[in-house]
Amino acid sequence: MQQWVYSFGAGHSEGRAEMRDLLGGKGANLAEMANIGLPVPPGFTITTEVCTAFYDNGRQYPAGLREAVAAALAEVERAAGLRFGDPAAPLLVSVRSGARVSMPGMMDTVLNLGLNDETVVGLERRSGDSRFAWDSYRRFVQMFGSVVLGVDHHRFEEIIEQAKLDLGVTEDTGLSAEDWRRVVAEYKDMVAAERGEPFPQDPHAQLWGAIGAVFGSWMNPRANTYRRLHDIPASWGTAVNVQAMVFGNMGEDCATGVCFTRDPSTGEDLFYGEFLVNAQGEDVVAGIRTPQPLSRARAKPGEVPMEEALPQAYAELLRVREQLERHYADMQDIEFTVQQNKLYMLQTRNGKRTAAASLRIAVEMAQTGLITRQEAVRRVNPASLDQLLHPTLDPKAARTALSKGLPASPGAASGAVVFSADEAESRAAKGEAVILVRIETSPEDIHGMHAARGILTTRGGMTSHAAVVARGMGRPCVAGAGGIRVDYGAQTLSAGGKEVRAGEVITLDGATGEVFAGAVPMVEPQLSGEFATLMGWADEIRRMRVRANAETPLDAETARRFGAEGIGLCRTEHMFFDPERIGAVRQMIMAEDEAGRRVALARLLPFQKADFTELFRIMAGLPVTIRLLDPPLHEFLPHGEAELAEVAQALGQDVEAMRRRAAELAEANPMLGHRGCRLGVTYPEIYEMQARAIFEGAIAAAGETGEPPVPEIMIPLVATARELEITRAQVDRVAAEVFRESGREVEYLVGTMIELPRAALIANSIAKSADFFSFGTNDLTQTAFGLSRDDAGKFLPYYIDAGILAKDPFVSLDVEGVGELVRIAAEKGRGVKPELKMGICGEHGGDPASIAFCEGVALDYVSCSPYRVPVARLAAAQAALGAHRDRTA
Ligand code: PEP
Ligand code: MG
User: 685 near 597, Cβ under 8 Å?
Assistant: First the structure.
């Protein structure tokens, strides 16, 4: 029979770290920690398969589960020397979710379960601390009441607030055992009134209620949103962990804390964490009390580090840190509790980290031999490099400081202040840059955090919800800026006598924790140190080349700085929009005949030649793929009377004739109209001018740099072999002319884009006149799906939400359909010409999943926008290493 439940603790577990899919991350690691001899309170994990079975069977548990839970619970009782529901020695448990990948704060947790009117007395007697016992009971009623019974948590807070008001105290610590006992009674009355039945006293009923709530929370809206944002399938399910409670809130020799084995912001090899004396775990994460540092080295004046407060447990924790890093060979995120000076481990997992930290940790671990270079390359998420390639504050820029908090997640961001997640989302959807400002964030704010450019909180530490989530998302975040006062009612924040209203702009520096008024200018990032080291390793590993899509000198220079090995797509039409040239372009289009067009083209030739010379100079001998004119001509038509008049004058025609000509050129479906090679076939003089500019430019650049470029001339939107034959013949003829005139020659290639399904299917005939293929997966996706690139945004999000498509096919290649066309074309092309060079230049060339596909069909290179070049270098290396392993950043 299938095993639904796995026990752990007391030096032995049924599970292991590798069983994460089955036991969830938390369950698998609790089992592993117990196996390697770390102090883990005993417990058991109900598998993710139970969750899946539960949802597959109309929310029914599989047969045999109840018996398995009863048996595992009995084992916990034995290991802990306590009994569930026994007033003499009550076992209390925590019930927590734990999916395959961590989803911080997304699902529900219940602590202190097993308490009732009788067992609370047992807890009181055994702990010798009445206040602790009744505080624990009221925490339980509150958590169980809101999480399992669905009572609004405000109802509980109102009762506490009223009790404090009646007693004239401001802090929870001002309440005595007797006060908590009264609060518990009021809670239970309130719950009974809300629910129409008494608060459950039977610990077994409590346990099954909590298990049901955790499984239920897998499908709650926040968890659904989180899964969508992180590409986590609903079918994975969550596990449920039931574990004997240990208490960090039983007195001054007790504590609870969270820590990272290295700094999660910078990656520095320093133990990094926070703890609170006499507190339960939730108190640290919730950010209600300000946690203290672990080590003396990290303590600021007035702080009491764990090293001093609990030296014995601290020494033990240091040993655990060493052991866990060695065992997992990765930076760990640890949760622990100290009960009466004894350390207990409650969780370990690979820690979430910033891109900078991820790089540094991977590189340093490889340098010390803890992992291999390949493993280091595998571990860094290519998409996260974006965070490092983005600007930071210009150190020379003037600025007006508002306040300072903790540097919770690096990067700089400016934006308009908003005070709610919903507003952040709605304003960001309109294209506005916003900074989400909250006293503290909670899982309900996740959509707003995602939409915001940066996040600022006034409460909470480096492990507060805001800090953890922002780091995971790569958003700059300043947390716990205590000097700022937020007034949600008035929609203002104030600091140091200055007031900022909603909608006014502020700037955050997540690397220093500083907050500034207004927008502070930014500078480009420096790419050295660990970044350069890791990129060097990636370059040694990858097989595919990485080029950039670039047409301006600035883009080409940026691309080289980021390590591009050539240009894979220069869209020549982008060079036509310059105000100096557009007049000549319009003149060319509006000309009635070839002679008129030739006059205008002669005006454009020197501009194009100069552009190409410059690109060849910057790329110094590297391959440069230049695509001849592609878009529908109407994109360049004159707009309005003034422009019409200008063109009319240049052509010596009247305005009315121009208007007629413009109407003639209009198309019902321009993306499928007179564009691409269809222009070159019907108006050969256009491609002739461009080919001439390319060859003259190449000869000029070769003369200047001594490194002759090898232009790769690319014909767009080819659907038939004949189109390529005709346009190629034009290019070859112009080449011969230019070489004869100048007395010099350069090597060149002529190839085609494969961006229409027909071209993919007849690639064998097209290949006969092609030196290379470049897959234009933007148009290929558009035409394979029959889905307009320009209009799909209106309904595609619905398709993705509804699961009809897993991802936007314009962002990540549709391997099943569009990918199949690529595969067919590659095979057919190589079938007639094995040496045919092949690359990709659609947007997919910068998307890691699509790059993995390109490796699979053995393309020679990918080409992407300059800022994605490092992403592509790393993704190509990972693709060469084979299937991705799980990553943490
Ligand atoms: C493509 O279609 O994928 C392509 C690269 O060309 P463009 O985006 O310019 O149409
Ligand atoms: Mg295209």
Answer: yes
If you average pLDDT over residues 103-110, what whole number do you get? 76
The closest residue, in CA terms, to atom 4 on ligand 1 is: 776
Per-residue DSSP letter, 100: S
480 has a pLDDT exceeding 60: yes
Pairing assessment for the beta strands 93-99 and 238-244 based on DSSP bridges: antiparallel
Q: Cα separations (Å) of 235 from 214, 387, 803?
A: 15, 30, 13
Whether 841 is in the pocket of ligand 1, judged by its Cβ within 6 Å, is: yes
Window from 104-108, 131-135, 765-769, 808-812 with minimum mean pLDDT: 104-108
* Contacts of residue 533, Cβ cutoff 8 Å, sequence gap at least 6: 363
> In this predicted structure, what is the pLDDT of residue 886?
39
At residue 884, does pLDDT exceed 60?
no
Select from 841, 843, 844, 863 the residue to mutate for testing ligand 1; criterion: most ligand atoms less than 8 Å from CB. Answer: 841
Residues having C-beta closer than 5 Å to ion ligand 2: 755, 776, 779
Residue 423 binned pLDDT confidence (cut-offs 50, 70, 90): very high
- Any idea what DSSP says for residue 107? S
Run of H or E including 238: strand 238-244
Sheet containing strand 272-277, edge to edge, reads 292-293, 272-277, 255-260, 332-339, 342-350
Cβ of 755 less than 6 Å from ligand 1: yes
CA angle 220–283–322, rounded 5-degree value:
100
687 backbone φψ class: left, alpha, beta (φ>0; ψ -120 to 50): alpha
Q: Which amino acid is at 201?
A: Q
pTM to 2 decimals?
0.77
**Tens-place pLDDT, residues 178-207:** 999 999 999 999 999 999 999 999 999 999
Residue 636, token pair as written in the block? 């360049």
**577 membership: H or E segment, kind and range:** none
Outline where DSSP puts E strands in 411-566: 412-418, 434-438, 454-457, 477-479, 484-487, 492-495, 498-501, 505-509, 514-517, 522-523, 545-549
